[in-house]
Write a structure and sequence with these properties.
Among the domains are: 218 residues, Rossmann fold (3-Layer(aba) Sandwich), CATH 3.40.50.280; 138 residues, 2-Layer Sandwich (Transcription Regulator spoIIAA); 103 residues, Alpha-Beta Plaits (2-Layer Sandwich), CATH 3.30.70; 108 residues, 2-Layer Sandwich (Alpha-Beta Plaits), CATH 3.30.70.100. Helix content is 31%, strand content 19%. The protein contains 26 helices and 29 strands.
Length: 848
């Protein structure tokens, strides 16, 4: 298989020097001054390079959180692949800017743009948000505002895009309905194409905004608030057969480390366990499984197109997948030599067999989390958790015996019917699990506050208030003294706000808008959450928390009643009443049908892992190799420029390793608990620093047959600006590459060429520095002020007034070297803002 370049010189549309006609703003200057600039550069492997100007419909997929969170979301990857498979449609991506980037955008009047073409959100035909968490609502408003889109749908003009939303939050769309033109209820694989066809037809006819909304309202599963004004019930869309949707096979590969930095292989969808607190387990019914053969093909295709070394098998309950053990064993055998680790993030205690544990530990021991949810069997019966304390202890013993040193246990506080004995039970369980490690393990108790979500049997229950949550947290602070047991909990104020936003109606929209205008952003991030601003906004809008946290009467109408999530109200009521009797309900996959309504006549029913005839692209066949114990040592050179200069050293390392994995280079791995490829670098380059000459070493099991072909293939897989320029074999013995570095040569171009007095000042500063024997500067390190003499570290320093260039060579000593920005600020006297705009290039690495 030939690995094609994901980006060509002709279609790169990112990193323009000037942005959107604003000739006073340099995009690179903006990126140099913000945290993690790799969030904003785009150009990732497998991102689309389609001509956006000729597209019939332009769709912006918007995720109201950071790039690293949004790029971890499988749903966005699926929709991106499906939309871009249409010949006349293009999908581009946009994520919420971090506050430092937002501040610069607002200061310079810059709109929020997509990564692919840097087009403002307001220039698209359709903007689709994925609403995964209620505390992202202020980010939605911020993105609309920054993108030049009117916040309220009723006020939007004819040329503004239609704004739609999907995801779990839209099962109660009421709190944010004034801000959206339409909501997609349920699963999006099929309905997204129907939306695109309808909009394409309407656009071709030149139909006004109202006609476009009416066309969307005719599509099953779409709720259009401005059209559906007669309390129509909107039923969710469900994909009947996952085997018909083998996507994404070429997911976009992020340039920076993301929250879940791995392949997400969805093995099944839906759950029939019936946990009464779990909204996902209710609304995503029925259970549908993918065929194991198809999963193997998908895994091959995704590993070959991404270069990842970890794969997560996704399902609400991975252990319930009917072929989980043979599938896991097969994938482990298939990818063992490539050191691909497998993760099962959603395992129920009772499904975690010794066979599964042994399979997981073969390559790399990923983290282990178990979710008892409640501390006593009585309360587990109330919530219908379906496992026992003995199940938990037996599983914990097997995990520790297999070599894991730490286990995290998830529990909820404030469950219906909770008593003090249930809290004591959590502590007792923690001690019992810890004892299974024989004193060598660590147990973390993770406590979250229960939120009674819509479309669950507990939707009528009350949520405990802030004072009650804090009291329960204090209960654990006082009683846990064992150093091997730690306790973590969610911010009680966040849970309070989540409860309000998830259970309210349209009357909450003014609160959300008020909080946004007050400055609330990233409310799901502990270090950004401003409850004081929300509290003040609630006062201004007259919102009282108890009105939303209270229990609901069984006869009263609920804000989400117009949404049909697939499970019947009678079923939810029956489960609610069973919870009061502490009566569990058996899983319908192993017992009788409980008539929940998900498997409706003529609609989707439980679909098993039957055969599939999906046509998949060519793939590189897996091959085993007998790697020598030590391997062969190769030294390579590479450049780091263009967009790639905004990547950190770790991000450069990841990009190089993924390119090597895609090419199937026979890497040699370390031994131990977490095997990793044997690769090292001469030095680490800072974010924003360009380099014409970087050096690294990699150990290979076998020598490349065609070195020139190897470099061409690797470079085709690397992001723009990162290029391997040479590779040669080295002796196995000899000093490490980092030990041979004696210094570096740099070139720095000043933002504006000084003249007259300014030029004289620079030259005088350089002359004074070179003439002196010492030049101490103050540096902050680990909270302490350190005095460092940088004069002995600088060998040459000169200024070329014609090009406005500073050239210097510096030494590398055991205690380190000197940074070029320190020369610019401390020696030449540039202020920090100006120094950040200086283009710095490492021109050479000097070896002893």
């Amino acid at each position: 298989m030939t690995i094609a370049s994901h980006k060509t010189k002709q279609d790169t549309g990112y990193l323009p020097r000037e942005i959107h006609g604003n000739h006073n703003v340099n995009w690179e200057d903006i990126l140099l001054s913000v945290e993690r600039p790799g969030r904003y550069i785009g150009g990732e492997a497998n991102s689309t390079g389609r001509d956006r100007q000729t597209a019939g419909v332009r769709f912006a997929l918007a995720f109201p959180d950071t790039y690293e969170v949004g790029m971890s979301h499988l749903g966005m990857q699926i929709l991106y692949a499906i939309i871009n498979s249409h010949g006349d449609v293009t999908a581009e991506r946009c994520y919420a800017p971090w506050p430092d980037m937002e501040a610069r955008m607002r200061r310079h009047g810059l709109p929020l743009c997509t990564l692919e073409s840097r087009s403002p959100l307001g220039s698209f035909d359709l903007v689709g948000f994925s609403l995964q968490y209620e505390l992202s609502y202020t980010n939605v408003l911020n993105m609309l505002d920054l993108g030049g889109i009117t916040l309220h749908s009723r006020d939007r003009g004819e040329k503004e895009p239609l704004v739609i939303a999907g995801g779990p939050c839209v099962f109660n769309p009421a709190p944010v309905s004034p801000f959206f033109d339409a909501f997609v209820i349920g699963e999006g694989e099929e309905v997204i194409s129907e939306i695109l066809r309808a909009l394409s037809e309407q656009k071709a006819k030149g139909q006004p905004r109202r006609r476009r909304l009416e066309a969307l309202a005719r599509i099953a599963g779409l709720y259009v608030p401005d059209i559906h004004t007669n309390r129509e019930r909107i039923g969710k869309r469900t994909v009947a057969d996952l085997n018909a949707w083998a996507c994404p096979l070429q997911p976009v590969v992020p340039l920076i480390r993301t929250i879940h930095d791995r392949i997400n292989l969805e093995i099944a969808r839906g759950c029939t366990r019936g946990c009464r607190f779990c909204q996902a387990g209710m609304v995503w019914r029925p259970v549908r499984e993918r065929n194991p053969g198809l999963l193997r093909q998908m895994a091959d295709a995704m590993l070959g197109s991404t270069g990842y070394d970890e794969m997560s098998l996704l399902s609400l309950s991975a252990g319930d997948y009917s072929h989980i053990e043979p599938l896991l064993a097969d994938l482990m055998d298939r990818y063992y030599d490539r050191r691909v680790a497998l993760a099962l993030p959603s395992l129920r205690v009772e499904t975690l067999t010794k066979s599964l544990i042994d399979s997981i530990r073969r390559v790399r021991k990923t983290s282990f989390t178990l979710a008892p949810e409640a501390g006593t069997q009585r309360l587990r019966n109330v919530i219908n958790k379906g496992n026992t304390e003995d199940d938990l202890i037996a599983t914990a013993a097997s995990v520790f015996e297999a070599g894991w040193k730490a286990i995290k246990l998830y529990f909820m506080l404030g469950l219906p019917g909770e008593r003090e004995e249930d809290l004591e039970g959590i502590i007792a369980l923690g001690h019992r699990v810890m004892r299974e490690s024989r004193g060598r393990g660590q147990v973390t108790l993770s406590l979250s506050t229960f939120v009674p979500k819509p479309h669950t049997p507990f939707q009528w229950q009350a949520q405990i208030g802030l004072a009650e949550t804090l009291a329960r947290q204090a209960f654990f602070k006082k009683r846990i003294r064992n150093r091997n047991i730690s306790v973590k909990w969610n911010d009680a104020r966040m849970s309070l706000l989540e409860g309000i936003l998830s259970r309210g109606g349209e009357g909450l929209a003014p609160l959300i808008e008020d909080a946004f205008r007050a400055g609330c952003r990233f409310d799901g991030w502990t270090d950004r959450f401003r409850f004081d601003l929300w509290d003040a906004a609630m006062d201004r809008t007259g919102i009282q928390a108890p009105d939303y946290l209270r229990g609901r009467e069984l006869t009263e109408s609920l804000p989400w009643d117009r949404i049909d999530a697939g499970v019947s109200r009678d079923f939810l009521l029956d489960e609610y009443e069973k919870s009061l009797r502490e009566e569990p309900t058996a899983d319908c996959r192993t017992g009788r049908c409980h008539d929940c309504g998900a498997c409706r006549p003529g609609g989707p029913a439980i679909v098993g892992a039957r055969s599939s005839a999906i046509a998949l692209p060519d793939k590189i066949a897996p091959a085993r190799q007998a790697a020598p114990s030590r391997g062969m040592r190769f030294r390579f050179r590479f450049t780091k420029g263009g967009p790639a200069r905004f990547l950190s050293h770790l991000e450069v390392l990841t990009a190089l390793l993924r390119a090597m994995n895609r090419y199937r280079l026979p890497l040699v791995y370390s031994s131990g608990f977490h095997p990793h490829p044997r690769i090292s670098f001469a030095t680490a380059t800072a974010v924003g620093l360009e380099s014409r000459e970087e050096h690294g070493e990699i150990w290979l099991a076998l020598p490349p047959k065609d070195m020139a072909g190897l470099l061409a293939q690797l470079n085709a897989c690397l992001p723009e600006g990162l290029t391997i320029t040479g590779m040669s074999e080295m002796l196995l013995t000899g000093p490490a590459l980092s030990e041979m570095v004696r210094g570096f040569e740099y070139e720095a171009t000043l933002p504006e060429r000084p003249s007259g007095e300014g030029m004289s000042h620079i030259q005088e500063s350089i002359d004074g520095f070179l003439a002196g024997g010492t030049f101490p500067i103050k540096k902050e390190k680990n909270g302490k002020t350190v005095i460092k003499d940088i004069r002995p570290l600088v060998e040459t320093l000169s200024y070329d007034p014609q090009g406005g260039k500073i050239r210097l060579s510096v030494r590398m000593e055991k205690e380190g070297t000197v940074r070029v920005p320190d020369i610019l600020t401390e020696v030449l006297g540039l202020d920090r803002e100006t120094a950040l705009q200086v283009r710095i290039i490492k021109t050479k690495t000097l070896f002893s």
